[in-house]
Each structure stands twice: as C-alpha cells, then as structure tokens.
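The passage that follows is intended for readers who have already worked through the single-chain material. We present the inputs for a multi-component assembly, then the predicted structure in tokenized form, and finally a short commentary. You are encouraged to pause after the input and sketch how you expect the pieces to fit together before reading on.
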Amino acid sequence: MTYTAPAAEQRFVLDVIADVPGLAALPPYANATPDMVDAILAESGKLASNVFAPLNAVGDKAGARLADGVVTLPPGFADAYGLYVAGGWAGLGVAEAHGGQGLPFAVAVAVQEQLTSANMAFALCMMLSQGAIEALAAHASPELQDRYLARLVSGEWTGTMNLTEPSAGSDVGALKTRAVPHADGSYRIKGTKIYITWGEHDAADNIVHLVLARLPDAPAGTKGISLFLCPKILPDGARNDLICTGLEHKLGIHASPTCTMSFGDNDNCVGYLVGAEGAGMRAMFTMMNNARVQVGLQGVAIAEAATQHAVAFARQRVQSAKFGGSREAVRIIDHADVRRTLMTCRALTEATRALVYLNAAAVDRGHAGDAAATGLADLLTPISKAWATDVGVEVASLALQVFGGMGYVEETGAAQFLRDARIAPIYEGTNGIQALDLVGRKLGMDGGTHWQELFAQIGDTLHDLNANAELAGLAPWLDDALTATRAATLWLAAANNADDVAAGATPYLRMMGLTLGGWLLAKQALAAQKQRDAGIGDAAFLAAKITTARFFAEQLLPQVGALSAPVTRGAATLFAISEATLAA
Amino acid sequence: MTYTAPAAEQRFVLDVIADVPGLAALPPYANATPDMVDAILAESGKLASNVFAPLNAVGDKAGARLADGVVTLPPGFADAYGLYVAGGWAGLGVAEAHGGQGLPFAVAVAVQEQLTSANMAFALCMMLSQGAIEALAAHASPELQDRYLARLVSGEWTGTMNLTEPSAGSDVGALKTRAVPHADGSYRIKGTKIYITWGEHDAADNIVHLVLARLPDAPAGTKGISLFLCPKILPDGARNDLICTGLEHKLGIHASPTCTMSFGDNDNCVGYLVGAEGAGMRAMFTMMNNARVQVGLQGVAIAEAATQHAVAFARQRVQSAKFGGSREAVRIIDHADVRRTLMTCRALTEATRALVYLNAAAVDRGHAGDAAATGLADLLTPISKAWATDVGVEVASLALQVFGGMGYVEETGAAQFLRDARIAPIYEGTNGIQALDLVGRKLGMDGGTHWQELFAQIGDTLHDLNANAELAGLAPWLDDALTATRAATLWLAAANNADDVAAGATPYLRMMGLTLGGWLLAKQALAAQKQRDAGIGDAAFLAAKITTARFFAEQLLPQVGALSAPVTRGAATLFAISEATLAA
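Having made your guess, compare it with the prediction:
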C-alpha cells in the first residue's frame, strides 16, 4: 500500500477544532508551537509512509508466530521498531519531567493516526506502551518509575495491559488472577490472561506487563483489584516466571501478537504493586480512557487509509460509460454513484477525526487544570471510541466496494483494511459497553452540565451559520439533528426504567456521533470560509472543507432524526419474544 | 457450526408472501402441494444440517487448492456433492420436460437458502449449475440440450458462467474473448476469463462452461457478444483445450474455487453456440436475473446462520450484571443492548427473506404466463440482490459483535460469516450497478405501472392495518415510509439530469428495500394474527411475527425518511471537489 499523511488536513483540525495554538499558551504545552507541530507531522508522515506502510501487507501475510514461548514478528518489524525508537517517537506526548517531549496528547494523536493508517497492527504496539507509560507516570512509586518508566519513554522497552481472562471480558471485576505478598515487599502473581496485545515479541529487550490481580483477602468485584507490574526480564537479568502460551488466530491485525499469557506457572512470577492495594481499577481507567480515544483514532486512521486507497483506484480504473451518457467508458471516479461512496468515506473520516482530536485536546486541557475540560473529555470518550470505530468498519467496507471483484481478492489490500478495522468496535470495551457508559455515567455527570455546555456550543455554531449568507444552508440540518438529540437526551434523563435506558443506548450514541460530526464539520466550514476570504491557505483545500460539511449535513445528518424512535421506544419490544422462540 | 433450518418460518413466508398454494393451482407447479413442500424442506434441512454445515469451517480452513490445472476441493466436499446428486436435489426447480421435478423457483429458493446458510461456498456450486440449466433450457438447441442438459439436471455435471475479463467487469460489453467458426459447425474459443466461480474442481466428471465471446466480425459492445458452451470433457472423452491457470486468494468463500480460466491456449478449444449469434447477452441475462435473486438469497442465508449462531452464544455466555440491576452476572441475552442487536438481526433477516421469496414467486408467475408478475419480478430483482446482500453483511457484522473478543478469533466461526457475506454485494453486478438498474431501467418499465401497482398493494396493507385495533400502531410508520418512497420515486421520474438520477440511486434502493421489508413484515403480522385468532399454528411463533413487524416498523422504518435528502439532492455536491483534492 501507499499512504500519504494528510498533514494539511490534520494541521487544520488541530488548529481549528483542537485549538493547539491555545494549548501552546498553557504551561505544559509550550513546546507545541506551529512550526514544531508542522515539523513533527512532516517527519512522522515520512516514518509512516516509508517504514510502516511497506510492512502492512507483509505483516498481514506473515503474521506473528509463536514457538516455545518466543514470538517472532514478521520480517522487517524489529528493524522498523528500531527506527521508531531512534527517532524518539515514544516520548512525544510524555511530560518532560518523565523524559518526554511534553507535547499535547492532541499532537501525539495526530502522529499516532499516521502510524496507524500505515500499519494498524504495528502501531498497536506503540499505543499499548503509551498506556503503560501513563499508568506508571500517574500511579507508580518513584522507585518503580526510575526502574521502568525511562526505558518505556525511550521506547527501548514496550508495555502491555493485562485485564481479560476467559470468564472476565467486559466484566473485569470477575477476574481471578491472584497476587500474594512476598517478604521482600514484592508480590507473586499467578493466573492466566487472554487477548494480551503485543504480550510477547522480539523487537525489544524487555516487556513491562501491567497486570490486574486480586490479593488473597480482597473483596469481590472491581474494588478487590490491584495493579501489578510484572517485567518479562527481572532487574537482575533473570527471566521472570511468565510466558506466552498461545497466539490467537484472528480475522485481522495479524502482525499484532494477541497472546495468552501465563503468570506464575512455577509460583515465581514477581510483580510490583502500582499504586495502592485495591486501587487497580482506578489506575487501569487512567490508561483505559486515553486508550479508548486512541482506539477511536484507529477507526479514523483506517478510514483515512482505506479512502486514499479507493480514491487512487477510482482515478485509474476505467469501466463502463456514464449513466445516461455517451458510450465511452470512463474512469469510475466519474460515475456519480462511486463519487457518492468516496464522498461518504471522506465526510465520515473527517468528522470522526475532528471528534477524536477535540476529545484529545479536552484531555490536554484537563491535565492543565481545566476541570470542565476533563468533564467534556469524559463525555466525548465513549462517543469517540464507539462511533469512530463503527465508522472505520463502515468506510473500510465502502472503500472495498469501490474495487468491485478486486476488493474481495486479498492481494489488493482493501480487504485487509476491513479485517483490521473490525477489531476496534470490540476491544477496549465493546461499543455496546461504550454506549452504556455514555447513557449510564457520562450524561449525568456533574448534573448534566457537560452535555448542556456541548449543546450550547453547537447552538453558537448554529447562530454563526444562520448569520452567514454562504453557509446558512447548513443550519436547518444541524438544527434538526440538535433538536432530536437534545430531546433524546432529555428522554433518557427522565426515564426511570434501567432497561429502557439500556435499550436506547446504542442508537443514542450514534445520534451523538452524527450530530457532533456535523457540528465539527460546520465549524470547519466557517473557519475555512474565513481563511479563504482572508487569502490564507490553499483555496482548493478550503473549498473542499465547505463542500464536505455540506455533504455531511444534507446526506448524513438526516439519520439523526431516524434514531429518535429507536432511542425512546423502550425495552419492552426487545424482550417480547422469548429466547426459546428467538433461537427457534 | 450447527445450523437448524427455520422450516416453520420458511413455510410461513412461502404461504403468506409467496402464495405457494396459489402457485400450486397453476399448471406448471401442480407438484407444489403443502405436504410436498413440507417434506422437501424437512429433507433439505437435514442435508444442510448434517452434510453441508459440518464442512463449512473445514472448507474455510483448507480452501480449494490448485496444482497443474487440477483443483482439489477441501476434504469431504466431493463426497457431500455425491449425496446432493443422489438426493436428486439438482433438478428440484427444473421443469419436468427437462427431467426435473417441476417445483416453483420459490420452493427451490427455500431449499437453496438452507444449503447456503449451512455452507455458502459449497452452495455456490449448485447456484451456478442452476444458472447453466436455465440458460440451456431456454436457448440451447435440442441437440445441445440432449447432450448436456440432462447431466446438469441430474447433478452429475456442474455448470459455470464465464463473463468477466480483466478489463471487462461491470462493463461486460468490453470483453475480448474470440470465437471463430469451425468447419464442423462448432467454434474455436480463445481468451482468458477471471473470477470464474467453481470453474474447475474434482467433484464432478465434467464441467459445462458457458462462455461469452465475440465472433471476428461482431460489432462492438454487448450486441456483438455470443454465448458458447465449452465442455471440460468433449463428447469423445478427450479433454477440451481449456484450463484453470489460477485461483484467487479471497477474503472468504475459500472452499469455492474462483478460477482464472484460459480457453484455447493451443487454439483448439471447442465451443458450441447457444442461441443465435449476437444474442449472448440476452441469454446471459436469462440466467443472470435469477442468479441475482439467488445472490440476494445468500444475504438472507448468511444473516439467518449468523443470527442463529449469535443467539445460541448469547443464551449461554454469562457476563456482567444487568445495567442498573443487581450485581449478579447474567447471560448476555438478558442485556437490553444485546437483545437490540439480536432483534435487529432477526428483523432484517425475516424482511429480506420475505422480499426474496416474493421475488422468486413473481418469477414463477411470470413463467406461468402472468406478464405483470414478470414486470414485478424485474422491478424487485435489483432490490433483492442489493438490499439483501447489504443486510447479509450488516447482520454478519452485528452477530460477530455479540461474541465480543471471541468474535474476532477465527475458530469461533462468526468472522467467517462476515468474510463470506462480503462477496455478495459485489458479484453478479455490484450493488451500485443494481441501484442504477433500478432507477435507470426498472422504475420506468411499462410506464411505471409496476412500482405503482406495488405501492398500491402497500396501500392495501395500510388500509388493513388501520382497520385493525391490535396492529394499527404499525400503520403510521409504514405510511411515512411509503410517502417518502413515493415522493422519491416521483422525483427520480421527473429528474432530467442523468447524473442527478445516478447520484440518488443507491440511497433510493435502500429506501425501497426498507419500505418493502416493513410492508412484508406487516403483511405477515396480519396473517399471523388471523391464524392465531383461528387457533391455527404455533402461538409463540405467531406472536413473534407480530413483535418482529412492530420492531421493524418502529426501529428501522424511520431510516427511510432519512434517505429522502440523499436521493433528491442531486449530483452537484458529489462532484464539487476536484479529484486531485479528493486524492490529496
């Protein structure tokens, strides 16, 4: 595959939606000057295009292989990882106090988008390490930080998250892995974890496993869970008692080793407590929230890559005369139906990108002390994760369709995007879990001020659109979407039957995603118009921004209204058919 | 996988929607008595469950293999094919005059649905042979029929369709394969065909290839195309000069050999003309129309199988407490969000099944001399093909999601449904081509009488609903859908810019699919109510029919209105961004 980083688009969204210039005015992010951001995106774009992308099909075909507890990555991956480390990319978004470059999460996310577009299976490794860095930076003792954090920030070592067990998937609180205190202050860990991404591989000298486990006297459920650091290689250079016993045979992301990890087969797996006993879930959520934003980003990244791939094909493939036109065969990009597909891909990609970058910037503002921003980030996170990953699958499938029969043949590469994309709605909390998190926890937070504030901002944009001769046509579509979404929100807030709320969760999350997407594209159209009128920037790019916002408003925003009934019809019909009849 | 044929549901749809009792009153279909149909569905259900289903995962894993022009099927396939032949299944829907059992296409479709649910890759072989039988029955000389038709009807030999070439996919008229007349009245064929389904295999003694080619003096485009029969083995027992030179490495249907076929490498490939010179496309369309219905059926079949699979898992998998409930973990079928997913799967499966069976029965009525029924079948065919295959992919993906992480692991089998389903929107005319066929050809046929008649029938059902205390609640949803669809139809009929019509084609087809689906489920609800009140049939099944119709009306029909704008906004926005900017 070839991949070209959409640096102009990324920069525009970082400026207009994430307000990185505003972030750079805050003490922690002073490094994020416009020149620095441009230089970073240009360099990471090269890494993505020249190093990661050429390995994407290689990794899919060869996959990660396991023999005797040793995982061998596909050819080229270990060397590529070396280039990533040498470039200092692992510390990009890490605070300078921890040896990083102190750039905002929003900028790190833009870089990670590029790497993920180019090679999602590989970029997962980086994503997991980022999570481990975050958890250790926030919760580990200075001693543990000294020993492990610096090597993760440099990229020399990689990190993992070990939550899932065979009977504890979405229900993390059901996990059974045990941790027993040891005389030297460490613990001995025993248990089996499954679906451990990049749990074992041959590209780094050490792997820092963060493992959720229970102390012998711990209470049931999530309150009894503590977090432990189990290094693959112990400080004295000996191998810890943990091993990869299996790799999953998956639909996609073949180059990402999805490991079954066995801890303490010989009762000698050393673990170090991270944070307080019983505070494991809280520590895990620190990293999980940002990981959810990053998984949403995977949806954006695959959508971008698949769209680029399909546009390139549509520009060169000649097939059939135009509908109702002369008999001369044209390139398929000239067919209106193919254009519709490509515009849908583009609009969804840009809308989800804006949402994820906005979310990341809210995380940054929260870290800089803005409590309202943290509330916004918390509200947006399940929407970013679920809507953007659904979009990733949808766009990958639309893009595959552009190739016709060739799309179904693996060598073309379109099918890999679909296979890779399909994991993202599942892991890091299924999209159903995200929807329940949104309606059950996030809407009601702080008395609902966060969604109220968000809707007020959409109202401001509506005001700007209505006052704008060129863009006023977007307003009715966005207004209808906002009205329907607000009504659904109020219905959920007033509902007093938990099943009814749960029944509406998934369509409600989609309403929110679409409405926010339409809003963020409209904001970009307003900004593009301003830049154009001021003679700043590339005219074609700015005109396209306005067109894409219009397309999204007219063609996709109407879906919001169609989701009102699904949100508000309650659970009765869903449970009216007995399960025996459902199975018949 | 386990698969249980939904015989009660199939029988209900055959009775209520396809009106098989009415068909049995027509001379060609006198054999289709209720007892006979029940016996057939019970027997084919056993074949599907006991023979086809156990080979589904086997076939996916082993795939078809090619060496030196010989294709070896996965273990067990050749024997299973023998059982299919021994059961006389190949001739089920073939007229008695040609040695078949003379049952309606609608009944044959119900059988084919079962086989496809159990093993889509394998059932494709049967589907292709049916197409070859149809083409030869309609267009071949008595001599050719004598030599080839009987062995296809018995199932001893299988058949293929050879249309596509590297530069002639959707644009069949661009094909280059040559046919030169030979002194003995036969022809010599030379050319390469790609994507030939079941083009070579080891389960039958001979393969009857139907090949589109051009005579030396033929005009350009589709008018210059003729149809030829090229047997793998010639009447004298010698091998014909045709060979499989490659197999595609595909996303799914691995057990179905997708062949590159080389005809006449030694200038000695014997072909026999089927029908008149230059009439090849017409002959091909004979089989293609029914093949399109059968591909739509693949969407139904995969949706059914994937839904069964997900329901079975949801009934046994225990994970997490109910939202807002006590802390006790429950089976995931008790979670409202999972129920929503399963109900969506069920409603979409039943709606598309009804549409495809209705379509098949209209084909039958047309064959029996009802010209209006032929018009209806022609109108419905692109909707059946495209909407049902889109639904197949959507339901397979929803069903996969129910499994969480396990859905992404190949051993579970959920991923195979998605991979297999994904071809159906592509082959036999991409869904984009179907949409253009609908708006460009089918709507305007016979002055638009066919869609007018269809909408009038929906109006009749609305009348029945409104007069029915229990079911009147369905009417407003169906009424809104019909109103929007009618308005979109009139807009398309009045549009005088071909690009605008083409731009609206895909969302319009989806409007039609959803509206027809909601209508056909409402019709079933009315019939179920009648049976229930008369004390006929299984009460739980009939109650579920009413619930499913209500779910579809309230939850899915609102999408129709959201498609009005996409249909009617025209092409301008789609082409507003230059392709260079689109690619940037």
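Commentary: Chain A touches chain B through 107 residues (CB under 8 Å). Residues 448-584 of chain A form one domain. How closely did your sketch match?
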